């Protein structure tokens, strides 16, 4: 028994030793900055000349900052439309491409390609495709006799265009995750269901969908975090315009922090965003756990 | 055995953490490769000494010049540094490209490793100067007898804060009206417009619609940020002297009514028409826009089209009461407070921006208008029909207001409301009122630069 305890202690010590570097780096570059940012959100820090305690001033200003709340409404709209579409389409494509047939790999690759392009480069091309007079999208609509809108310049369609472009780019990687999830579902479940007379819809509804719940949880959580932090595509496609409908919280945080040097206020904005992400993720967790335990 | 592993792992760990910490504040110095004695300490000191000894023992001062221009601009900056280095033997300037210069400067200014000269977008002065990170040059100016009157007043004003001057203007630019001569000839227009009314008529004549498709826009209304310029032409100013918005009045309304006429009644433009048309597909260069407001920075691009693009330039047309207006911008050179060789940095700035030799060499190479007026007397600028309209425009062009919150007010309050107006979602009165309310609040929130 004594030797078992010794072995255990030895293993524990080596284990701790091996995780120490990672934990230290995590502490230095993630945990400490987070606490620092929280502290800074109560100061008027400007990087260069001052860091005085201002109490709740930043949060009071935030409360009255109508533009900041507008950017929240913008990303909320984005999230509510983007996430379900993202899940349905990537799951759909994964179901279509989850067969062992020649050529299926080619289609998987083609669906994955958009993910490999750089977000900024792809967005630049999309600006062209969506051009009201000379873009491909409106040219195609023109053949159908439809006069397409100025996609990125009109307040009604600007955010929707961003949703389409980001969907195009994020479906590939989520499709891969779903294919992995699908291949982890044991065949005997389907076989026994067939013996019991279940049709294709039943098999999808009662086997595939529940079995994929951990995958859906992962995909939706990552998408929520990404959606609330939307920045680069929106910036390249519309620069926050027209009429502020595509400005996002991250855009404002960057602007206040690095352009106006109001790091204290920017930290307060960032903290509220972090809390919002936490709340959305929590709601998502509850939805995904509502039926039965997933693991 | 176990101890051995523990010790090795611990050592590696300590080294990694130290390297990580060091990397954090030494990052700028590492990427800037030269100078920055204090953080890299002894070793670099010795290499530096050995580098410089052959040229002139111990006396040569090495300066770091930071800028965010790459590509052609980088070559031009390096050529200027070389020319200066050859003109004397005490100071050696080295250009260091910093893609994200302002952010790098923030860390450099607080943690050491500051550059000696900064390529400076002038409008930033009102935000940075009160924070004591830039060195005033008034004493240098007085000592060397440099005449402030030789430079554009407005540009000097933009480089000043709290009664002190922080740098000298390297370039000046202003927007003027570019027009396509071929489209003008086709429409039977002989003289380029000089007033709002003539501009409107010329735009109507050059616009071409094919059913519901706009083929040639007579006049570009893409940039709502030019509101300030139109407001000056209507006889207004965008901010009051005490830092409040000043467009919710008859003058602001005159601008919006003019835009509304052009866009909705005359239909010389369509919202979103130019979005995404960058260089190579530029709407003016490809003849899809007959007239547009832009600056001298587009000359190089447009000249590339040669015979395919026959264009002329005139100063911005005057408003209803004959008021003229254009916005002046451009870059300057400044000395950070953290530099250890401010006197030498001043020598370089003085040579480049304040002598005919430096200013002209730079201007001809980079095709920029220098901020030094005597250099503009040169035939290179005076006799060129493409430069002259800009020089004329600069005589009345104004810088943007020196309020630290101005660009935020414009970008987050004014332009969004103007966009709603252009898309017919808001009346002129509502637009000006909302822009005023939101703009005043942003100006107030971002007023303190200290």
TrEMBL record, chain A:
<feature type="transmembrane region" description="Helical">
    <location>
        <begin position="111"/>
        <end position="129"/>
    </location>
</feature>
<dbReference type="InterPro" id="IPR000515">
    <property type="entry name" value="MetI-like"/>
</dbReference>
<keyword id="KW-0813">Transport</keyword>
<comment type="similarity">
    <text>Belongs to the binding-protein-dependent transport system permease family.</text>
</comment>
<feature type="transmembrane region" description="Helical">
    <location>
        <begin position="263"/>
        <end position="283"/>
    </location>
</feature>
<keyword id="KW-1003">Cell membrane</keyword>
<dbReference type="Pfam" id="PF00528">
    <property type="entry name" value="BPD_transp_1"/>
</dbReference>
<feature type="transmembrane region" description="Helical">
    <location>
        <begin position="160"/>
        <end position="180"/>
    </location>
</feature>
<keyword id="KW-0472">Membrane</keyword>
<dbReference type="InterPro" id="IPR035906">
    <property type="entry name" value="MetI-like_sf"/>
</dbReference>
<feature type="transmembrane region" description="Helical">
    <location>
        <begin position="16"/>
        <end position="42"/>
    </location>
</feature>
<dbReference type="InterPro" id="IPR051393">
    <property type="entry name" value="ABC_transporter_permease"/>
</dbReference>
<feature type="domain" description="ABC transmembrane type-1">
    <location>
        <begin position="72"/>
        <end position="284"/>
    </location>
</feature>
<feature type="transmembrane region" description="Helical">
    <location>
        <begin position="75"/>
        <end position="99"/>
    </location>
</feature>
<feature type="transmembrane region" description="Helical">
    <location>
        <begin position="135"/>
        <end position="153"/>
    </location>
</feature>
<protein>
    <submittedName>
        <fullName>Sugar ABC transporter permease</fullName>
    </submittedName>
</protein>
<keyword id="KW-0812">Transmembrane</keyword>
<keyword id="KW-1133">Transmembrane helix</keyword>
TrEMBL record, chain B:
<protein>
    <recommendedName>
        <fullName>Maltodextrin-binding protein</fullName>
    </recommendedName>
</protein>
<feature type="signal peptide">
    <location>
        <begin position="1"/>
        <end position="19"/>
    </location>
</feature>
<dbReference type="Pfam" id="PF01547">
    <property type="entry name" value="SBP_bac_1"/>
</dbReference>
<feature type="compositionally biased region" description="Low complexity">
    <location>
        <begin position="26"/>
        <end position="36"/>
    </location>
</feature>
<keyword id="KW-0472">Membrane</keyword>
<keyword id="KW-0762">Sugar transport</keyword>
<keyword id="KW-0449">Lipoprotein</keyword>
<feature type="region of interest" description="Disordered">
    <location>
        <begin position="26"/>
        <end position="54"/>
    </location>
</feature>
<dbReference type="InterPro" id="IPR006059">
    <property type="entry name" value="SBP"/>
</dbReference>
<dbReference type="InterPro" id="IPR006060">
    <property type="entry name" value="Maltose/Cyclodextrin-bd"/>
</dbReference>
<keyword id="KW-0732">Signal</keyword>
<keyword id="KW-0813">Transport</keyword>
<feature type="compositionally biased region" description="Polar residues">
    <location>
        <begin position="37"/>
        <end position="53"/>
    </location>
</feature>
<feature type="compositionally biased region" description="Basic and acidic residues">
    <location>
        <begin position="429"/>
        <end position="443"/>
    </location>
</feature>
<feature type="region of interest" description="Disordered">
    <location>
        <begin position="429"/>
        <end position="450"/>
    </location>
</feature>
<keyword id="KW-1003">Cell membrane</keyword>
<comment type="similarity">
    <text>Belongs to the bacterial solute-binding protein 1 family.</text>
</comment>
<dbReference type="InterPro" id="IPR006061">
    <property type="entry name" value="SBP_1_CS"/>
</dbReference>
């Amino acid at each position: 028994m004594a030797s078992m305890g010794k072995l255990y202690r030895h293993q524990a010590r080596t284990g701790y030793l091996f995780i120490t570097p990672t934990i230290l780096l995590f502490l230095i570059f993630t945990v400490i900055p987070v606490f620092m940012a929280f502290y800074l959100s109560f100061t008027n820090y400007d990087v260069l000349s001052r860091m005085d305690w201002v109490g709740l001033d930043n949060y009071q200003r935030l409360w009255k900052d109508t533009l900041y709340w507008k950017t929240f409404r913008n990303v909320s709209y984005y999230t509510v439309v983007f996430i379900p579409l993202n899940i349905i389409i990537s799951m759909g494509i994964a179901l279509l491409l989850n067969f062992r047939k020649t050529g299926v790999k080619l289609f998987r690759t083609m669906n994955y390609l958009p993910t490999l392009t750089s977000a900024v480069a792809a967005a630049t091309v999309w600006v062209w495709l969506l051009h009201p007079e000379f873009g491909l999208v409106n040219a195609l609509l023109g053949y159908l006799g439809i006069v397409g809108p100025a996609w990125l310049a009109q307040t009604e369609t600007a955010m929707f265009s961003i949703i389409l472009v980001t969907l195009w780019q994020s479906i590939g990687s989520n499709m891969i995750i779903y294919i992995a999830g699908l291949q982890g579902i044991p065949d005997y479940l389907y076989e026994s269901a067939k013996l019991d007379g279940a049709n294709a819809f039943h098999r999808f509804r009662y086997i595939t969908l529940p079995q994929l719940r951990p995958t859906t949880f992962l995909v939706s959580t990552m998408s929520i975090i990404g959606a609330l932090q939307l920045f680069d595509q929106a910036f390249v496609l519309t620069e926050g315009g027209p009429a502020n409908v595509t400005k996002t919280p991250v855009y404002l945080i960057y602007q206040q922090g690095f352009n106006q040097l109001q790091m204290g206020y920017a930290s307060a904005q960032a903290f509220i965003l972090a809390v919002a992400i936490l709340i959305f993720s929590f709601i998502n967790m509850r939805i995904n756990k509502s039926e039965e335990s997933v693991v | 055995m176990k101890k051995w592993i523990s010790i090795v792992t611990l050592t590696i760990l300590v080294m990694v953490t130290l390297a990580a910490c060091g990397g954090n504040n030494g990052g700028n110095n590492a990427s800037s490769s030269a100078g920055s004695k204090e953080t890299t300490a002894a070793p670099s000191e010795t290499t530096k000494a050995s580098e410089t000894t052959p040229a002139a023992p111990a006396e040569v001062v090495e300066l770091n010049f930071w800028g965010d221009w790459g590509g052609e601009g980088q070559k031009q900056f390096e050529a200027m540094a070389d020319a200066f280095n050859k003109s004397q033997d005490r100071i050696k300037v080295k250009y260091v490209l910093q893609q994200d210069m302002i952010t790098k400067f923030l860390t450099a200014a607080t943690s050491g490793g500051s550059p000696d000269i900064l390529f400076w977008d002038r409008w930033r002065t009102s935000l940075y100067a009160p924070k004591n990170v830039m060195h005033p040059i008034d004493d240098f100016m007085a000592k060397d007898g440099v005449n402030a009157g030789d430079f554009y007043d407005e540009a000097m004003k933009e480089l000043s804060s709290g009664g002190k001057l922080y740098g000298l203007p390297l370039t000046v630019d202003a927007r003027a009206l570019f027009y396509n001569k071929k489209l003008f000839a086709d429409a039977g227009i002989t003289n380029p417009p000089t007033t709002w009314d003539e501009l409107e008529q010329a735009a109507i004549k050059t616009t071409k619609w094919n059913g519901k498709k706009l083929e040639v826009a007579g006049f570009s209304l893409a940039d709502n940020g030019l509101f300030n310029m139109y407001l000056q032409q209507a006889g207004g100013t965008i901010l009051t002297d005490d830092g409040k918005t000043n467009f919710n009045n008859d003058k602001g309304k005159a601008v919006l009514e003019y835009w509304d006429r052009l866009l909705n009644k005359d239909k010389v433009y369509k919202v979103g028409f130019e979005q995404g048309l960058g260089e190579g597909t530029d709407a003016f260069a490809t003849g899809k826009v007959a007239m547009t407001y832009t600056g001298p920075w587009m000359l190089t691009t447009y000249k590339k089209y040669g015979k395919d693009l026959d264009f002329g330039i005139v100063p911005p047309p005057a408003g209803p009461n004959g008021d003229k207006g254009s916005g002046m911008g451009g870059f300057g050179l400044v000395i950070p407070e953290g530099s250890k060789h401010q006197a030498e940095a001043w020598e370089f700035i003085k040579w480049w921006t304040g002598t005919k030799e430096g200013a002209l060499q730079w201007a001809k190479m980079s095709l920029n208008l220098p901020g030094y007026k005597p250099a503009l007397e040169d035939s290179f600028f005076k006799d060129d029909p493409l430069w002259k309209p800009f020089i004329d425009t600069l005589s009345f062009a104004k810088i943007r207001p020196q309020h630290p919150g101005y660009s935020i007010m414009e970008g987050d309050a004014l332009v969004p409301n103007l966009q709603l107006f252009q898309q017919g979602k808001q009346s002129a009165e509502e637009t000006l009122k909302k822009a005023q309310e939101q703009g005043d609040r942003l100006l107030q929130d971002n007023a303190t630069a200290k």
